[in-house]
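Homework help board

Subject: predicted structure for assignment chain

Our instructor gave us this sequence and asked us to write out the predicted structure in token form, then describe one feature. I got the tokens but I'm not sure how to describe them. Can anyone check?
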Amino acid sequence: MRSLLLSFFLIAFCLSAQAQFWNEYSTGFPTPSTGISRFDIVDENVVWGIGYNGINPSNNIQQFSKSSDGGLTWTNGNFTLGDVGLGIGDITAIDDQIAFIAVHARSESQTGGVWKTEDGGSIWTKVTQTEFTAAASFPNVIQFYDNGDGVVIGDPVNGKWEIYRSADFGSTFTELNPANIRAPLDNETGYLAKKHVVDNSIWFTTSKGRIFHSIDRGVNWNVYPSPISDFGGADTFGDLSFSDTNKGVLQTNAGVVYSTVNAGVTWNQITTSGSGSPYGDNIAYIPGTSSIVSVGSDPAAAGSSYSLDDGVSWTNIDSEQHVDVAFFNLTTGFSGGFTVTSDDSGVFKYSSNILTENDIAFAKAISFYPNPTKNLINISGYDSIMNLELINLSGQTVKVLEPMEKVSLEGVQSGMYLLKITTNQGTETLPIIKE
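My token output:
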């Protein structure tokens, strides 16, 4: 993971801006400058996050914090692994008691793997059925589901991705058949916690700018190119998030945003606008909506912002350092901060209705299908539409459409467009593909 350097003099408490979107709570970490990231939100009440040293992330710490009341109060704890030098890469939880972590070696004498707790984090026990014993073994991503299915994904070893699956909450693991996933490219690796999960679909990203995608919880995998060369390099990196199993967004460290409506097979750059802009670190769709939150931790360009129209127009929220962001639904979301004191800071909780009002109102008013479409679009709630425009990705209006139950795209070239829909509830700009 990239280094994140906390600069105390750049931490400004923007109360007026945060009151509109974020409220800050204590992670309970005892040491100032401890950050929290790699959230796993189980439900509206339970969320876990991993701690790290914000002054010098290369100084390893083995700490976590969790909440069981929707992020109002947090309890910190230690990963007791028997070796304080092991690194914590990713976390996935079943509830407030059962959780799994992907652990990687940080020296030649260590061996990583998977650890599990069943008592809320007091005791962590290594799951011995997964190997991760080769010199190149490096677990990056782990995901478990509430029926016991799980998958842990590591870097390539001997020319194949080291991936294990479980169907019994980690009691046993089976190595993935290499025939079920494309072979790695030369020197290709994954990255810590670089994943996204929607229902049975899971994605992970690599150092070669590739996106691996499974629709069956990690049994079979496809791979797609992306618009960037590396998802975690020193100069180039990016993050992706999905609203559903098809619609997603990719953000680069330069704040460039791309969208997909086919699960990541193809991507198109979005021409962004608005009073704010996306940041360069992490990005999160609010599941099932057109709303996105972007955050940045670079002291020179720290802050958070949101979009209500799939990344086209942006509104700035604040200029705080935000090191991670994750949303469970329209009312439950978190962003990682840094501990200043152990009883008043460290984690941001979404505490607004900015995202809720727009998406609920619009969802009640308008929906359209199919997408992609060969020609006709069926629109429900068409009588509520005041204006309907088809816009290309350069922001130019291609066609002004008459609001009707069936709208024709005849004469429009194949490609990806944005359908700008204006109603008395507001305006949404949604991606659509003309086949």
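Reply (TA_rk): Your tokens look well-formed. For the description, you could write something like this. The domain at 366-434 is CATH 2.60.40 (Immunoglobulin-like). That's the kind of observation they're looking for.
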